Amino acid sequence: MQSIGDLAQSFLLRRGAARLEAETTRLGQALTTGLAPDIAAATGGDTRAIAALSRDLTLADTYDRAAVEMGLRAAGAQAALGAISGRLSTLTGQTATLTGAASPQALDALSSEGRNAFLGAIGDLNTAVAGHSVFAGTRVDAPAVISGDAILGKLRALTAGMTTAGDIGAAIDGYFGPGGEFSTADYRGSPAPAPAIAIAQGQRAAIGLTADDPALRSGLAAAAKLALLDDASQAARAALAIDARADLMPAERAITGLRGRLGATEAQIDAARASTAARRHALESERNARIGVDPYETATRLQQAMAQLDTLHAVTARLSRLSLVNHL
Q1: 57-282 under CATH 3.40.50.10190, yes or no
Q2: Where are the domains of the chain?
Q3: CB 235 within 8 A of CB 104
Q4: 3-state secondary structure of 211
Q5: Residue 127: left if φ>0, alpha if ψ -120 to 50, beta else—which one?
Q6: Domain Flagellin C-terminal, which positions (predicted)?
Q7: What is the pLDDT of residues 124-180, one digit of tens each?
Q8: Which of 42, 116, 141, 326 could form a disulfide with 36 if both were Cys (CB 3.0 to 4.6 A apart)?
Q9: Going by C-beta distance under 8 Å and a sequence separation of 6 or more, which residues neighbour residue 289?
Q10: Which is it for the CA torsion 161, 163, 165, 170, positive or negative?
Q11: Predicted structure pTM score
């Protein structure tokens, strides 16, 4: 049976252990964050300035996350536009020496290349970054455009029975033209691009284009004409290929313009992130000046508290063994 003295001693030891454990936790937190764990004590009870700094730091983190996300989307869009431009450039080179006397074999190969380029371009326009459909405007949760095979199937049905390159080309141009079926039915995104979002204090940025952009529709129309060469009559095939060639270079130049505009947005995002990083550094420096702790002093105090706690545990264990011996 414990005496009153034993109970008092046990209580004091437990209370001392609790105090040292709280102290080590507090010092460990201070060492990890570099900040005083008791802000009120560190500021003399006036925490308004620290609260304002914390709000500004949270806002800076929010801006930076938005800028990172927008940067990834812009990079995805830039890569897609680069791929489409490359496909059109390849077709331009393959049609550069084309004449009305082109062989059936050459036109067969060109039709195959056109089909591959068209399907690839549709895939590029359906690019998604982190589940966000890049070219679909505000409708970010689904592909921007129906499948390339589905579009080619529609165009084949649209041009069935047509015998001249002029009629076939006009039908394809109409499908991809303003108010055509591509824009009204087969482009599945929103009519307008997604709105700009805040990426830094006083700065907003947006991708600013959709798969329904006229430059992209022109490039798709040119590639589709080549893809449908196999469906045209022999007399119309070469003329249709030459018609497509005339559309390729202007479409390429227009897409290069889109890439330049998007490149300016990417530069804006990079500058915004740098600005936010500088502001965060300034805010953190001011916060540290107000409630920062000396890491070396804190580490020393933490080691001392842990050593005292270890000693107290050892003493407690020894006294417990002695109490047991006395009881026996």
Answers
A1: no
A2: 4-34+294-327, 57-282
A3: no
A4: coil
A5: beta
A6: 253-328
A7: 999 999 999 999 999 999 999 999 999 999 999 999 989 899 999 999 999 999 999
A8: 42
A9: none
A10: negative
A11: 0.79
